[in-house]
Specification:
Blueprint: H1 4-8, H2 11-14, E1 22-24, H3 29-34, H4 36-46, E2 50-53, H5 66-75, E3 79-84, H6 101-111, E4 115-118, H7 131-149, E5 154-158, H8 173-180, E6 186-191, H9 192-197, H10 202-208, E7 215-218, E8 220-221, H11 237-241, E9 249-250, H12 259-263, H13 266-269, E10 273-276, H14 286-299
Parallel strand pairs: 1-2, 1-10, 2-3, 3-4, 4-5, 5-6, 6-7, 7-10
Antiparallel strand pairs: 8-9
Length: about 300
């Protein structure tokens, strides 16, 4: 049964990104790899109406062609507005074998996705990445955005913590990407966990770059693992590898991130779609974990809209 708050909310509120919260399927990647149909059915039964895809390989999503996967989603009453597609080579100035963006655009178009999201920077060089590298990435994102725009799809970029590393000139990778990409071509999917883990405030980024964050990843930080990942982490590969010791996730609403305060700034951020994501689940029943996050967002965060 719907709560009295949901019943009385306006039609605009009822369509808000938090009333209609999505799920990034990476959260249940092991289950999706084994039983994609049953996993998607369970996701729909929890109450999700849309999902964010990842792992499009060799022209297929979990063994399904784009057409087959779209039919599967349709049968379960699920939609997909955004997908993560591997663009590491496209963003790497040293890579000569670039990804097939046309194939990504075709798949996204079939699924009805509005955003093609680059999930990560070139991973092999995150210690060495500097401001010129991020400027190159911005140029490549703009080029990709020009291509996706012709299909009425927008390019987006998803951050981790290393984009928040401070360079000698006082800039950060995420700020370079925001400054050198065209807003009409490139949006951003703000991973709030990684931003806060790097010691920065989501609200400060909304204020500095209003309207640029059409997508959010909503995940929470274990209260016993709040130590910031600072610039010392990038001294060498061994030091960076120890970052994982400082990272532990938890269900949304159970952790240290002040989501009620952040959600109050959703309009300023330009938010269109939000996704629950949890990189690692420690509960035995992963669906119970996802439902716990879903219930918190629906029951609590929908009351913080302005």
């Amino acid at each position: 049964m719907l709560s009295s708050h949901l019943i009385s909310c306006s039609s605009n509120e009822a369509e808000s990104p938090f009333h209609q919260i999505g799920l990034q399927l990476y959260t249940l990647r092991d289950l999706m790899a084994k039983e994609p149909e049953a996993t998607l059915e369970a996701i729909a039964q929890i109450g999700f109406k849309h999902v964010e895809t990842f792992g499009y390989e060799n022209g297929k999503f979990w063994g399904f062609t784009a057409e087959e996967f779209k039919k599967l989603l349709d049968n379960l009453g699920l939609k997909s507005y955004s997908g993560h597609y591997d663009l590491a080579n496209h963003l790497d100035s040293n890579a000569t074998d670039k990804e097939n963006l046309e194939q990504y655009i075709e798949a996204a178009h079939i699924l009805g996705q509005k955003y093609i999201t680059a999930p990560v920077s070139p991973m092999h060089s995150i210690i060495e990445l500097d401001s010129p590298d991020y400027q190159y990435m911005a140029e490549q994102l703009n080029k990709a955005g020009e291509m996706t725009q012709r299909a009425n799809i927008q390019m987006a970029y998803h951050n981790h913590f290393w984009e928040l590393r401070n360079f000698a000139n006082g800039t950060r990778g995420l700020d370079v990407l925001l400054a050198f990409t065209e807003p009409e071509l490139v949006s951003f999917e703000l991973d709030i966990f990684w931003l806060e883990k790097a010691g920065y405030s989501a609200r400060s980024y909304f204020q500095k770059y209003p309207g640029r964050f059409h997508l959010w990843h909503v995940k929470d930080m274990d209260r016993g693992h709040q130590e910031t990942i600072n610039d010392d982490a990038y001294k060498d590969a061994e030091t960076l590898a120890k970052v994982n010791e400082k990272v532990r996730f938890t269900e949304v609403g159970s952790g240290a991130i002040d989501y009620p305060n952040i959600v109050a700034q959703a309009h300023q951020s330009g938010l269109k779609y939000a996704y629950i994501e949890q990189d690692q689940i420690y509960m035995d029943n992963k669906f119970s974990s996802v439902k716990k996050s879903y219930d918190y967002v629906r029951k609590q965060l929908t009351q913080n809209l302005i």
